[in-house]
Amino acid sequence: MKNPESITVKNIESAFAGESMAYIKYMYFARVAREHGDVETAQVFEETAAQEVQHAFGHMDLLYPKAEMSVKQCLAMAIEGETYEYTEMYPTFRHLAEREKNEAVVAEFDEQIAESKEHAERFRATLEKAAKRFAALTKVEERHANNYRATLAKVSAA
Questions:
Q1: Which of left, alpha, beta for 74 (phi over 0: left; psi -120 to 50: alpha)?
Q2: Do residues 74 and 97 share a domain?
């Protein structure tokens, strides 16, 4: 969407977050139900979770229309998000958990910091690899275009 300060955009972002969280929550609840032997309830949670993820995708389509997105933009946004997680979000959360002496949460956030860093590096490497492929394709396309121009010039001169 064009205006990130728009109340509507903020509402769609909140709705996306809510639907995404509902998906994960319901999948977790399904796991709990299965572990308790309640397969029927687990299936209800899983079916509802599948609907929630579709709602989240619908919100993403509004926020980031596919026709306006490129793979490069997707990778850049992923790098930005993961970098934020390991440089700002989790370190801040970790510090607060440490102050409260909640060692289990500190350990969880330490893991998330490391994993977010790995994710950002993987996305960055993918972006660099894609840029190299694109550069190579550009050279090939340029060579083909020059060959076509030369052939066209010969045909036109004849």
A1: alpha
A2: yes
What sign for the dihedral angle of Cα 145, 149, 154, 156? positive
Cα distance between residue 41 and residue 27, in whole Å:
11
Q: What is the pTM of this model?
A: 0.77
Within this chain, do residues 121 and 148 fall inside the same structural domain, yes or no?
yes
Taking all residues of the chain, what is their mean pLDDT, rounded to a whole number?
Answer: 92
Report the C-alpha gap between 72 and 132 in whole angstroms.
Answer: 12
Annotate 81-111 with b (16+ C-beta within 10 A) or e (fewer).
ebbebbeebbeebbeebeeeeeeeebeebee
Residue 127: which CATH number?
Answer: 1.20.1260.10
pLDDT tops 80 at residue 126: yes
pLDDT of residue 4: 78
Q: Are the C-beta atoms of 16 and 60 separated by less than 8 Å? A: yes
- Asked if 41 and 54 sit in the same domain, the reply is yes
Distance CA 101, CA 107 (A): 11
Q: Sorting pLDDT into bands at 50, 70 and 90, what band is 6?
A: very high
Q: State how many domains the chain has.
A: 2
